[in-house]
């Protein structure tokens, strides 16, 4: 009996061994390679950013790059605070200046998507979105012809005062409502709406007020609820005035030449619709990948509304409703004293967001042909060259 039990036990062991061998023949014994989870430095990228900030005396920069919807590279360079020798970090917040216009354009397009307004709606006068609320004088025929689209596409024809200067730079001490009253009484439209492209920041101040009127919420609250919170942009907010308004993780800004000393000497809160956003490079890239029309990540707009968003005017097809475009790229740049920012995305699936806490002296006539052009070339290179250097990782 004892030998019989031993024989049965041996048979069981043999059967189990044969089952294990059979199973192993149906599987690959080599473990599948795991995608890297931690990025490695990329010299081809770092050298470009480091060379740029060194050449143009910019203290620091923050960069984020995506490929087919994946955050494949993010890095901070230089310093956020020279006096404290505090390094720039990925969570360092910085103003993005006119890149804020894309947020405002997107806020308007979300209201269009909701069916609340149309881009063709009149803004002022009887039946207009804002009616006759602002100012004390009768509106001109030109003012009554301004549409939402004219504001976003910079084709209103003005809002200028004192030698064709942008009204947004005046009456700094006024509240938004007080400034709006003053602007409507004193600023002029020099062209019929829709007939000329003229980049005027005040257009986006007015657009932000439309968002407030239609939504019944403050502009900042609407942007938070409909854009930054859904996209998990936790490092994004609206900037506050002066050095006392700096956010806890916000960089120090360093102007040059004619802009030096004006980094905190203007009403930033007035500029909510055209220049008010403070964010990080990875956060900005989250936003960019939600407005790029690429199915790799969900977009904020349905395709039909997106097509309206990126449609330029007849007088400037390259400037749409808060976004610019040329050939296969869409982009926007921003500049304030001590601030330069930009994003760009390409039909090849690449996108980049880059923010500096320094800027060239844009009061000089050669600014666009030197600093701004160099920045543009840098952005283009990041999304069109050396595309095989990025790891297959996603850090979103």
Give an overview of the whole structure:
By secondary structure, the chain is an alpha+beta fold. 33% of the residues lie in helices and 16% in strands. The protein is built from 12 helices and 13 strands. A 7-stranded antiparallel β-sheet has the order 3-2-1-13-12-11-10, sandwiched between helices. A 3-stranded antiparallel β-sheet has the order 4-9-8. Strands 6-5-7 form a 3-stranded antiparallel β-sheet, with helices on one face. Helix 2 packs antiparallel against helix 12, helix 3 packs across helix 8 and helix 3 crosses helix 11. The longest helix has 24 residues. It is globular. It starts with a helix and ends in a 12-residue tail after the last helix. 40% of the residues are buried.
């Amino acid at each position: 009996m004892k030998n019989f039990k031993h024989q049965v036990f041996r048979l069981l062991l043999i059967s189990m061994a044969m089952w294990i061998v059979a199973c192993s023949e149906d599987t690959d014994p080599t473990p599948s390679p795991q995608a890297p989870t931690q990025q490695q430095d990329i010299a081809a990228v770092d050298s470009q950013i480091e060379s740029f900030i060194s050449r143009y005396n910019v203290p620091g920069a923050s960069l984020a790059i995506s490929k087919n919807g994946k955050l494949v590279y993010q890095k901070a360079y230089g310093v956020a605070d020279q006096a404290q020798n505090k390094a720039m970090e990925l969570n360092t917040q910085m103003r993005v200046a006119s890149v804020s216009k894309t947020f405002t354009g997107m806020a308007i397009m979300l209201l269009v998507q909701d069916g609340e307004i149309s881009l063709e709606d009149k803004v002022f006068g009887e039946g207009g979105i804002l009616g006759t609320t602002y100012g004390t004088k009768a509106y001109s025929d030109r003012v009554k012809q301004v549409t939402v689209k004219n504001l976003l596409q910079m084709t209103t024809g003005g809002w200028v005062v004192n030698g064709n200067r942008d009204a947004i730079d005046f009456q700094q001490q006024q509240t938004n409502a007080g400034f709006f009253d003053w602007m409507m009484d004193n600023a002029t439209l020099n062209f019929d709406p829709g007939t000329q492209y003229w980049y005027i920041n005040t257009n986006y101040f007015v657009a932000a007020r439309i968002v407030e009127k239609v939504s019944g919420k403050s502009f900042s609250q609407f942007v938070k609820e409909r854009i930054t919170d859904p996209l998990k942009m936790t490092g994004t907010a609206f900037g506050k005035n002066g050095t006392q308004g700096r956010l806890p993780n916000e960089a120090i800004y360093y102007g040059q030449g004619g802009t030096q000393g004006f980094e905190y000497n203007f009403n930033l809160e007035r500029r909510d619709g055209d220049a008010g956003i403070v964010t990080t490079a990875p956060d900005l890239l989250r936003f960019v990948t939600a407005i790029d029309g690429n199915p790799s990540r969900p977009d904020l707009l349905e395709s039909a509304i997106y097509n309206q968003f990126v449609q330029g005017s007849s007088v400037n097809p390259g400037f749409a409703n808060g976004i610019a475009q040329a050939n296969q790229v869409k982009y926007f740049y921003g500049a304030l004293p001590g601030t330069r920012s930009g994003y760009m995305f390409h039909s090849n699936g690449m996108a980049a967001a880059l923010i500096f806490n320094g800027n060239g002296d844009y009061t000089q006539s050669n600014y666009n042909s030197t600093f701004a052009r160099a920045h543009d070339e840098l952005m283009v290179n990041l999304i069109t060259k050396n595309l095989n250097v990025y790891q297959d990782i996603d850090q979103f």
